[in-house]
Amino acid sequence: MYTLLITAPQLQALQQQGTPCAVLDCSFDLMKPELADGLFEAEHIAGAWHAHLDRHLSTHDAAQAVNGGRHPLPQRDIVAQWLGSLGIHNGMQIMVYDRNQGHYCGRLWWLLKWLGHDAVAVLDGGLQAWKEAAGALATGPSQAGTPAHFALQEPLRKLVLTDTVSAALGRPTQTVVDARGGARYRGEVEPLDPVAGHIPGALNRPFTENFTPDGRFKSGDVLKAEWDQVLAGRPASSVVHHCGSGVTAVPNLIAMELAGFGPTALYAGSWSEWSRTPGLPCAQG
């Protein structure tokens, strides 16, 4: 069972062995969401389903949302129903990937862990690594699957909401880590949200720093050394990850697990919810 990363050759071997597998393409363009369908239809791993960040991995129906912000999480049963509609069930090894150097597929990895499904892994290096391994490709829209039942289990990863983060602000029991780039963290620029800056006391670890130039995760040893430096003695168990809208924080969460730390929490509302909540403090610099 693969629970963090899987390489292209490992995925090919599973397929050749006839292991029940599901592959989902999460490629996206945050600034141009309308391009996602075209990206998938132009080229994807043969047999993959399309997982659209706005349509499938977020909800914009307040009655179905777990949290606020720009990409609110859908309730767990809604995600399970969507997976089942594709033909995905609990007996499958699931692989997620994108063509964006791992920026978006972590969202679905985390969602599946939150649904209680441990057998989900990120394809290290994404579509580019698959092509390097001469993996089979296809074009066109997602193919319909035979509907299946995806059963909810106890969550395997922790979600925290704004009230929880706010209540623990400044306490040693909580270490907030902001995955956005340094300029957004410091409040020098803010292209998406109404207020520039960061949650007071938050540490900054841009999620892009977890990857090598080819879009693969750095080695566990390298990540361990880098995260030890970020945490500077703070307990890993106290970490709560966030970013702009709860999507690109997940590579930080995965990186900590690759480094040998235990699972850490996700504040999915992130800066987009925090900065829109009246009365919450914001810092700059």
How much strand? 5-15%
Rg: 18 Å
* Order of secondary-structure elements: EHEHEEHEHEHEEHEHEHEHEH
**Biggest pleated-sheet summary:** 5 strands, parallel
State the shape. globular
Number of helices: 10
Distance between the amino and carboxyl termini: 43 Å
Low-confidence stretches: none
Average pLDDT: 97
Structural class: alpha/beta
Number of strands: 12
Description:
The chain has 285 residues and is of the alpha/beta class. It is 29% helix and 13% strand. The chain contains ten helices and twelve strands. The strands form three sheets. It has a five-stranded parallel beta sheet. Strands 8-12-11-9-10 form a five-stranded parallel beta sheet. β5 (93-97), α4 and β6 form a beta-alpha-beta unit. The longest helix is centred in the last third of the chain and has 12 residues, at 220-231. The radius of gyration is 18 Å and the shape is globular. The relative contact order is 0.17.
